[in-house]
Amino acid sequence: MTAALTISGVRKTYGKLEALKGVEFQIQRGEFFGLLGPNGAGKSTLINIIAGLVQASAGNISVLGHDTVSDFRTARRLLGIVPQELVFDPFFNVTDMLRIQAGYYGCGEEVWPWIDEMLQRLDLWEKRKVSMRALSGGMKRRVLIAQALVHKPPVVILDEPTAGVDVELRRTLWTFMRDLHSKGTTVVLTTHYLEEAQEMCERIAIIDKGEIKALETTQQLLARHPFRFLRLKLAEGAVLPVELQPLVAANINGSLELKLETSKNSFSSVFALLRRDGVAIEDVQTRDPDLEDIFVELTGRKGEVAA
Ligand SMILES: Nc1ncnc2c1ncn2[C@@H]1O[C@H](COP(=O)(O)OP(=O)(O)OP(=O)(O)O)[C@@H](O)[C@H]1O
Question: Where does the record place the ABC transporter domain (predicted)?
Answer without folding.
Answer: 5-234
